[in-house]
Amino acid sequence: MLKTRISGIEFENPLILAAGIMGSTAASMNWILDSGASGVVTKSFSKEPNKGYKNPTTVEVEGGIINAIGLSNPGVSNFKNELKLIKRNRKGTTQENGDKGIDSKIAIGKEISDKIAIASVYGSTPEEFADVVLEVHDLVDMIELNISCPHAMGGCGAAIGQDPNLTYEVVKAAKKLSHVPIIAKLTPNVTDIVEIANSAKNAGADALTLINSLGPGMKIEINTGIPILSNKFGGMSGPAIKPIAVKCVFDVYESCDIPIIGVGGIRDYKDVVEFLYAGSSAVEIGTSIMYEGPKIFSNINNELKNFMVENNFNSIDEIIGFAHKD
Amino acid sequence: MNKIINDYRILEIKEIISETDTIKTFIFDWEMEGNRIPKPGQFVMVWSFLRKKDEKPMSISKIDENNNQIAITLKNVGEFTNDLHNLTVGDKLGIRGPYGNGFEMEGDNILAIGGGVGMAPISCFVDQATDNGSNVDIVSASVTKNELLFLDRMKNSGANIFTCTDDGTCGFEGFATHRTIDLLESRSYDMAVVCGPEIMMKEIFNILEAKQIPAQYSMERYMKCAMGVCGQCCVDNTGWRICVEGPIFSTEDLKKITEFGKYHRDASGIKETF
């Protein structure tokens, strides 16, 4: 009943872990998958290791958090060891050969795994993206391009996703080499997100994730007058940004015909329904893990099923884009 | 919706105690209200904004509900702690918390084991246990006599102290592990609490497990958000967050933490073996 599809990949339900939240190790991502998520997006990683910004890197504000972790990651060669341990193929595999399931899946080719692993990658040039994609595309089901982080330096993140031409070049470079579908994750911090969405689509993106964190924003401590984050500003996430994310999904759905994964402030099933109504085929959940813990995934799946029964929806497909009907 | 514990309190340092050549205790006034009342074993995030800005998790080393004060105790081991050691009374720090789970009281006959500055959360628990009338034996370990922490405070609490030093300058000559094996030849306990270098905790774990004494351990990992979102402090192979599911873990929990005593991850996530 909860199944949904994106670019030929089947998800057992529409709830996916968002990038940057509990996605640094296979162990934490497997915990999220065991908690009911149909897929996980890893924390973004790059060619070389990056320690990120100094603390404080996260601050809670009304309606969510502001973070400037700074894209810390151990570099692709180290992170591949985590990717190999994500338990994707759960059909007919026992605990003992769970890890080997990954190899057998590659051998079989297009067989759909029970759980979906999505690698979030970043870089500053099309070549850097391409290099990382080549390293990991045989270890995951999909690749999400982070061209939208609002606190990245050195030409990474939103510096790409705020420019239609750079967006096109990066997506094209990744798509050209990848064996798996390419998702472009976009920033809401642009004049016209539809324009960027179409650049990504024209470059061959298979799907879009909308939206990355908002802003950047800032929190100043009033007794000291000092911005709390060491980077001074960071990306705003959490329930407060949800209406903006829903509007971005709604607008892009009308003008760009590739699947959308909605993300931004989802805390319960009602939020998921809104995103599906707006045109998302699936959603990602991140910050609300702070409030609810990993069990948020199974809770929402149960609530969503009840909602569908009560409202006579037989499939997720029937809900997607419902708000666009006259 | 905001978790009140995530709000920073900008607090003046009320008192600084030089415990040893390398360890200082900092005392702050603390509003003892709701979920801001700390439990022994919990930690706070300490934001230093005066000089080199940074923020690190620190165990609470004393909870004084009568005088509405808490303390943290830090060994000068690096840039951040060195910066803090240079602060004086009246200087300010940003503190949020308390975070994580505390030690659980499971019996009246307690063995408390602290290695070096690991005595910080242990002493906090000993205060609570002795206040409750429990019998507490402490194994307090350090490299040398001058580095033994809280000897007077622990004596005054009514606990029995068994010191050990690597160089034999105070008490038993040898490690906490040897002292513990020695004690367990003639005594038994309902429970143990342990904090110290992870290699020490791993060996203590094996000793207590062989004697089937239920124990709780205080774990440490590189931490960023402390709110359970960033994933930096997650441990293999359970994925548990030290800041939420920890930092205190039982023997049964630790059996599932496969990286315990073996490795941890640095700020970028690269594994470093102990």
From TrEMBL, chain A:
- Organism (species): Methanobrevibacter cuticularis
Q: Which cofactor does it need?
A: FMN
User: What does the UniProt record say this protein does?
Assistant: Catalyzes the conversion of dihydroorotate to orotate.
Pathway(s) of this molecule:
Pyrimidine metabolism; UMP biosynthesis via de novo pathway
Q: Which GO terms describe its biological process?
A: 'de novo' pyrimidine nucleobase biosynthetic process; 'de novo' UMP biosynthetic process
The answer on whether this UniProt entry bears the keyword Disulfide bond reads: no
Q: Is-annotated flag, keyword Cytoplasm? A: yes
What is its EC class?
Answer: oxidoreductase
Please list the residue ranges annotated as the Dihydroorotate dehydrogenase catalytic domain.
1-308
What's this protein's name?
A: Dihydroorotate dehydrogenase
Keyword tags: Cytoplasm, Flavoprotein, FMN, Oxidoreductase, Pyrimidine biosynthesis
Which CDD domains does the annotation name?
Answer: DHOD_1B_like (cd04740)
From TrEMBL, chain B:
Residue intervals of the FAD-binding FR-type domain: 6-105
Q: How, per the record, is the cofactor bound?
A: Binds 1 [2Fe-2S] cluster per subunit.
Q: Quick one: a GO biological-process term for this protein?
A: pyrimidine nucleotide biosynthetic process
Which molecular function GO terms apply here? 2 iron, 2 sulfur cluster binding; flavin adenine dinucleotide binding; metal ion binding; oxidoreductase activity
Q: Which CDD domains match?
A: DHOD_e_trans_like2
Keyword terms, alphabetized: 2Fe-2S, Electron transport, FAD, Flavoprotein, Iron, Iron-sulfur, Metal-binding, Transport
Q: Which cofactor does it need?
A: [2Fe-2S] cluster
Q: Where does [2Fe-2S] cluster bind?
A: 225, 230, 233, 243
Question: Which NCBIfam families does this UniProt record tie to the protein?
Answer: PRK00054.1-1
Q: What family, per the record?
A: Belongs to the PyrK family.
Kindly give the PANTHER family that the UniProt entry links to this protein: DIHYDROOROTATE DEHYDROGENASE B (NAD(+)), ELECTRON TRANSFER SUBUNIT, DIHYDROOROTATE DEHYDROGENASE B (NAD(+)), ELECTRON TRANSFER SUBUNIT-RELATED
Protein's UniProt name: Dihydroorotate dehydrogenase B (NAD(+)), electron transfer subunit
Name its species: Methanobrevibacter cuticularis
Q: What is the lineage of its organism?
A: Archaea, Methanobacteriati, Methanobacteriota, Methanomada group, Methanobacteria
